[in-house]
Amino acid sequence: MKQQPLNPLKGTLKGLTVFKSPLGDLGVAVAFCLLLIISSCETPEKVLKSTDLDYKKAKAISWYNKKEYFKCIPVLEELIGLMKGRESTEELYYMYCMANYKQGDYMISSYHFKNFYDLYPNGVHSEESLYMYAKSNQMQSPKADLDQTFTYKALEAYSLFLNTYSDGKYIVECNDAVKTLRKKLEKKALNAAELYYHTENYKAAATSFELILKDFPDIAESERVSFMIVKSNFKFADNSIPSKKRERFNNVIKAYQDFKYKFSGSKYLDEAKKYEVQSHRLAALGAYEWAEGAPLYEREKQFRIFFNEVKVQLPYLAEKKQIDELNRLNERGYFLIIKNSFAISEEKKNASRVPYLEQTVKTYYNFVDQFPKSRYSKEAERIFNNTTELIKKLKANG
């Protein structure tokens, strides 16, 4: 009888038909081992179902040492609860805190590292846990243009560590971290101030730049920040209502003086000087503008403020045109006080007008003494004559 060829995938063994691996006996052995590994694989779910605490503990520690943190975390969490009150869970809790950090769950690790420190302040891991509490918060600190809540939390945490362990082994790391976090806050504050300026919110810009120097005195951009204080204050003053201009242009002058004192060789000094020079003139002009438009009973007081402002600012003006301008306004201001006093008298009736008319006469004499050849002399004299006539009539009528 002719023998049939064997199928390469089949063989006979004592009358039984079996399949052979294309890789031979070695392939069969490998497949068998894989089957055994898969069938015996232990998962967190399987371990959690066990009632053997020692077994659970051994598996959790094994996974932790193998850096399989996602496996050990749920088992450690359960063990801490089950073993509470029976035996110390300090080491297990430490591993749980660290596993969450290594897993990237920084919000959870932050909470638990601080809680761990509070529970075991004198434990072997206390210093490290307080440091890791700060580091966990730092890991949650976002980019400089986002909300910096966690940056502030991290700084508070590092401050707590440095105050608690002033000679601790993490001092260098903490100081480096604080510098990094403060740099981020500097950038955030600087970006905000620049944004205020570019959106023409000059008041907020000036205030923000000033706060930067106060909060971050060692900022690398301090020269530019100081210049921007001058520039922002000038823009703010220039866009202000008349009643605020005198004060705000004087703030520009003060800001310039501070800037020049700190950075006498600054590349921004020429531009800053222009704002300062203009502010001397504009401070006086602002005072005049407000005096001229002030309420009737406030007007003389505001003109007195303007006269004083002229005395203060004139010595700083170099251009004859600007000096003449302020002198002309000064002269006109004294004349307008005469008109103002007479206008107030017109609001009164009968004998109650007399005190205000007499005040008009006083202001006239003051005006004539200072400006004997004024362009307003004729009009001032006309008001004076009318005033004296009215005083005579009112007094005669008793």
Task: Please provide a written account of the structure.
The protein is mainly α and 398 residues long. It contains 17 helices and two strands. It has four domains: 61 residues, no CATH class; 85 residues, no CATH class; 119 residues, Serine Threonine Protein Phosphatase 5, Tetratricopeptide repeat, CATH 1.25.40.10; 58 residues. Strands 1-2 form a two-stranded antiparallel sheet. A hairpin with a 2-residue loop joins strand 1 and strand 2. The longest helix has 28 residues.
What's the quick description here?
The chain is mostly helical and 398 residues long.
CATH topology of the largest domain: Serine Threonine Protein Phosphatase 5, Tetratricopeptide repeat
CATH fourth-tier homologous superfamily of the largest domain: Tetratricopeptide repeat domain
**In terms of per-residue confidence, which ranges show pLDDT below 50 for 5 or more consecutive residues?**
1-23, 28-40
Number of domains: 4
Strand line-up of the largest beta sheet: 1-2
Task: Tell me the number of helical segments per DSSP (H or I, 4 or more residues long).
Answer: 17
What would you call the structural class? mainly alpha
State the name of the first-level CATH class of the largest domain: Mainly Alpha
Distance between the termini: 164 Å
Characterize the overall form: elongated
